[in-house]
Amino acid sequence: MHLYNLTLQGQTAINQAVHGNFSGTPKAQVLCSHEVFGIIRSIMPFRLTGGSKDYIAVGSDSGRIVVLEYSTDKNSFLRVHQETFGKTGCRRIVPGHYLAVDPKGRAIMIGAIERQKLVYIMNRDAEARLTISSPLEAHKQFTLCYGMVGIDVGFENPTFACLEFDYEDAEHDPTGDALQTTKQTLTFYELDLGLNHVVRKYAEPLDDKATMIIAVPGGNEGPSGVILCCENYLIYKNLGEQPDIRCPIPRRRNDLDDPDRSLMIICAATHKTKLLYFFLLQTEQGDLFKAFFLFPTLSFDEDLVTEMKVKYFDTVPAANAMCILKTGFLFVASEFGDHHLYQIANLGDDPEEPEFSSKMHLDEGETFFYGIRELKSLVPIDRIDSLCPFTDAYIGDLAHEDAPQIYALVGRGARSTLRVLRNGLEVSEMAVSELPGNPNAVWTVKKNVDDKHDAYIVVSFINATLVLAIGETVEEANDSGFMATTPTLGCGIIGDDSLLQIYPEGIRHIRSDRRVNEWKTPGKRQIVKCAMNRRQVAVALAGGELVYFELDPTGQLNEFTERTSWPHEVLCMSLSEIPEGELRSRFLTVGIADSTVRVISLDPQDTLSPLSMQALPSQPESLLLLETTSEDNKGSSTIHLNIGLQNGCLLRTTVDNVTGDMMDTRTRYLGTRPVRVFRVRSQNKDAVMCTSSRSWLLYHYQNRFHLTPLSYVTLESASSFSSEQCLEGIVAIAENTLRIMAVEKLGASFNHISYPLKFTPRRMIVHPTATTLMVIETDHAAYTTITLDRKRNDMADDIVRLANDMEEVELAKEIADVLRNNRPDETVYGAAKAAPGKWASAVRLLNIKTGEVLSLFELPQDEAANIALVQFASHQDTLMALVGCTIAQKLDKVAKSTRGCIYTFLLTAAGDRFELIHRTETPRPVNAIHDFRGSALVGMSNHLRLYEFGKKKLLAKCENKLFALRLKNSEEIAAQHLVNGIAKKEILYVSLNIIGKSTYSLTKKFGFQNRKIVVTFRLVQNFPVQITGIQSTGQRIIVTDSQESVHFVRYRKAENQLVIFCDDTTPRYVTTCCVLDYNTVAVGDKFGSISIVSFIHL
């Protein structure tokens, strides 16, 4: 068996982000995207002393440190160095998880989670090329690393600071007391450049456990040292006589979070210039704090820092990484959900907002408080779609668009969404205007070759032509010189400032001084097809005759005496644009009714002589010659011939620049209608708009061609469009409308429509006939709406009760009213966090097309849910949604819960509403539900039970329990109790109800009558750990376990038994399962692996 895969969309989650001047140019620009086929664990930029360009150091799962350089010429990353130091894979003792660089670019430290650290010295050779040394070891046994940074020490020996934990004593202490007393350590490593040796310079035990370490700029820009981000505190430390500066992390005022919950910094960004520097620190709630380290935040008294100040800045989504750009922008790579780009409007220097100082006296455990507000210092600029985390999906054409959509559950908490993904580029619609009839073609025309914007939109009808002038508005033009009483076959600018209109009876040449020259077709024959560029015109007359024109230096259009003809009609033609530095295009391509396409020479030496021919599988509908250059506009260009066929296929053929030979043909099916191709502009380059039953855009982006459908109505004709309001757009016709639009987010495979949810979505089910779906949302450490309102009211009552005099009472009432009525937007500020073990869940029914919430049911506090759609045999005309719950589950080392329940909801026939029928208590937590032949299969912990519908509750009909039997040959009868399972002996799994039907009959002492065999047994549960999913195919049931992979189960209706007849021998921590055929399933596990498991009959 071979498993192939195709990546529909690349990873959208961002684990780390860095900023720097990688291209060596001062402006911000889009770089390249490169697939590494691995896991990038860490990245850091560095710059050699005196350099103007940053390099990138990469730590990955390859067991190597890689130094990359961005090449502007090739628009790609170049590998400068690649040094191997360990095995592949994300191993805890193989470096790559942490990277730290010396601020002067002299050395790089790469470290593992445990024990190993390596230091590389960076330098230049005689030709100013980057060199890297052999690794210098800085290992330490029994040491865990929590963070690593490079210290700014100027040009002294490079120094690195690490957060470490020495577990040697705890490792050899069976009581566990040493673990409680062992402290985290801040360790400084120094690289002696003279001796080429790394030493542990200083180590200091920490009273507070730190989660992050931040380097402070030094030299002329700051005091150097580090900031330790601990639980509830920020601590500044430095070598020498510098005392520790300790500042509490402020908390939100009137916060509904669990009061015992600690506060941690999860992300930080540093902004450093010659005049100032500051830090942006982000808490778990998403709040940003600005930390001041120059005046007035840090005061220097004899080179010692005496004070630290922090100030509330703004609130953004919780981030994995943040980058402050020198251009005044903040990029936030969100931990979950979309990534955001903000413009920094101000530096948070409002004097009316409080700032908090380390010198303010507070008792131990106390902190500062602040009030949240709307964005004030940041302005949202852009957003990057992200599908992280992707919890569930459904693929189908529920919107009846003749193309499937992907319905995905994305996000976490209050920022969760239901995403509808459509394969296609997102289109921004600028304007839509109705036309007096159904047009058949559209063009845009400039008045002068040097104009930046188009002057006219020319729309051709079956018997007329409409010319629209482009200005602040688009209006009909009466003085364009175009003939309005005839259809137009082609038009455009010719020469520098003349216009050309080709119509069935001839060619109309409109000079800039309004003089008009006409060429009429001979013998009342009509023009059927045409092609033109700025200096050349070719027309095909009825009957297959070709006439060619060129523009002379005086601006006169001259007909060539040479003509060529074919026995079949000409169906389409194309001329490429004139290459730079040339007088004419060398090739004309012609599509003939005999299902061939021909390349014709336009060279003066052999004008209209055939060069090459290609047979086609169908008659051609349209042709377009397109010349493509590289991203940097350097090197030779490539000519591609795009052929649209009448059978709905698009062919792209490469044409040799010299001989005109056609080669390397690629084919793509686009739709059920004939394919028409049009030249448009995309990112200041030529692109191809293809129209069939669906519209497509073929464009060159990041060194490769992309052919992507448009998420838009079907178009019939298109042309590029440019105006002051829309610099690079497309004008197109669809039925009787004229549309102006712009294509955005090039390179994306999908466009997204988002519908907000309240909690983290877990599972969804789709109604089989209606355009609705049900979503289960569940969050840990969360409050339901009822509980949250009760806590808010209790807090407001406490504020009023604690007031003493009348003035305080009035003030307390105002504060209480604000607290009751002011509900912060949870999508911006996050939801309140409850204590561990608290759960909140909701069942939501949505209309797929509009996103409207049709029904919503919030479960009681502490119930975590999953869902399935069941059609019971006793109610075959109705659909019921079963929602299984785990009650009060504790997420300790092993998830613990002693009970659960099942809610039964009845869906209406239209699928637009549901109502609660009853609630069934279960003795164990419910983890999975599946519709099986008119009954509900329920996975409860590690039990499998079959339920049928009852009037007041669900009725349990069958549960699978097994005996584990161990057979042991012995001369004596002995009893042995099984502990921790059965090992090294033969095990027979025999259903309790069919023990008597086994090969041997059992005696009362559980021994066999015909052999002296003692049977020791233990009643065990269905499945080893916990059921995570249930699938079925026919009579066969597939059950997945959280640690023990897949089990195949059969239901014996006559005996009313569930019997396991096969299981996987390899342990897999299965999270999802998909049935491929009767014997094969695909499973995904929690470690990101996909496996194909097949049942084989021996």
UniProtKB/TrEMBL annotation:
Residues 840-968, 1019-1094 form the RSE1/DDB1/CPSF1 C-terminal domain. Gene3D superfamilies: YVTN repeat-like/Quinoprotein amine dehydrogenase. Residues 29-382 form the RSE1/DDB1/CPSF1 first beta-propeller domain. InterPro entries: Beta-prop_RSE1/DDB1/CPSF1_1st (IPR018846), Beta-prop_RSE1/DDB1/CPSF1_2nd (IPR058543), RSE1/DDB1/CFT1 (IPR050358), RSE1/DDB1/CPSF1_C (IPR004871), WD40/YVTN_repeat-like_dom_sf (IPR015943), WD40_repeat_dom_sf (IPR036322). It is found in: Nucleus. Keywords: mRNA processing, mRNA splicing, Nucleus, Spliceosome. The keyword Nucleus applies. GO terms for molecular function: nucleic acid binding. GO terms for biological process: mRNA processing; RNA splicing. Residues 428-742 form the RSE1/DDB1/CPSF1 second beta-propeller domain. Pfam families: Beta-prop_RSE1_1st, Beta-prop_RSE1_2nd, CPSF_A. GO terms for cellular component: spliceosomal complex. It comes from the Eukaryota. PANTHER family: DNA REPAIR/RNA PROCESSING CPSF FAMILY. Belongs to the RSE1 family. This is Splicing factor 3B subunit 3. It comes from Angiostrongylus costaricensis.
